[in-house]
Design goal:
This is Glycine cleavage system P-protein N-terminal domain-containing protein. With 263 residues, the protein is of the alpha/beta class. It is built from ten helices and seven strands. The protein has a domain of 144 residues: Type I PLP-dependent aspartate aminotransferase-like (Major domain) (Aspartate Aminotransferase, domain 2, 3-Layer(aba) Sandwich). The chain has a five-stranded parallel β-sheet, with helices on both faces. Strands 3-4 form a two-stranded antiparallel ribbon.
Length: 263
């Protein structure tokens, strides 16, 4: 966290802006019996080196990626991140996900986005890549909305093995559309194919699965694709761990119509 100082002059300016003459005036509506009268029971301030050493010793109590091999899925995977990447991401061109609108000022940024799109296209075997999405959860929700627009239907089947955060985001995005969301159960850590055959119908816009799924299992995307496409339904394949695309067969080759996720 960056240290952002505040001077007495800045405090006065802020109080003036919100119409308060003092801090007491600002908290006037807070009853006296709810205000803290004594000092907080916290230790004295540490120096920077003492604080860093203290946090380091507390952090050592955690079970991290260096002390264990996590195979739990759930989107928690160890990655090597080059030191240069941290400084590149601090550049203002990459602070937001918005596509630059002034090409004459953004040639470098546009070039980097094009290279990113090209690599993702090669990894997923999808013809079109849209990079300007907030995160994997938002991308999944946008994919769901896309399937509604393409199919003119308002029912979606969502695998229970989709990351819970993604599921909640999809529900939030689809709530204004009054979309019926059907839960797809799992069996032995993978999508229950027989349940899918029962739930699928031509009134369904799309089926959303995740592979590797929340448990870290690899779904039989080809088989799922056959079931889904037999009813003229779109298949959305979510990739939470994009590094898996360097090993696994591309979702576009497995029958996915739309691919969403983090990268």
């Amino acid at each position: 966290m960056r240290y952002i100082p505040i001077t007495e002059e800045q405090k006065k300016e802020m109080l003036k802006e919100i119409g308060a003459s003092s801090f007491e005036d600002l908290i006037e509506s807070v009853p006296q019996n709810l205000r803290l009268k004594d000092k907080l029971n916290i230790p004295e301030a540490m120096s920077e080196s003492e604080l860093e050493d203290n946090i380091f010793h507390i952090a050592k109590k955690n079970a991290d990626f260096y002390s264990m091999k996590p195979l739990i899925g759930a989107g928690a995977y160890r990655h090597f991140i080059p030191e240069a990447e941290k400084f590149l991401l601090q550049r203002e061109e990459f602070w937001t996900c918005y596509t630059p609108y002034q090409p004459e000022l953004s040639q470098g940024t546009l070039q980097s986005i094009f290279e990113y799109q090209s690599y993702i296209s090669r990894l997923t075997k999808m013809e079109v890549v849209i990079p300007s999405i907030y995160d994997g959860a938002s991308a999944t929700a946008e994919a769901a909305l896309m399937s509604l627009r393409l199919s003119h239907k308002n029912k979606i089947i969502v695998s229970n093995l989709l990351h819970p955060h993604y599921r909640e985001t999809v529900k939030t995005y689809l709530a204004p559309h009054e979309t019926e969301i059907i839960d797809l159960p799992y069996k032995n850590g993978l999508v229950d194919m027989e349940k899918l055959k029962i739930l699928i119908g031509e009134d369904v816009a799309s089926v959303i699965i995740q592979s590797p799924n929340f448990f870290g299992g690899l779904e039989n995307v080809v088989k799922i694709s056959e079931i889904v496409h037999s009813k003229s339904v779109l298949l959305i394949n979510v990739i939470v761990e994009s590094m898996s695309l360097g090993i696994l067969k591309a979702p576009g080759e497995l029958g996915a119509d739309i691919v969403a996720g983090n990268a």
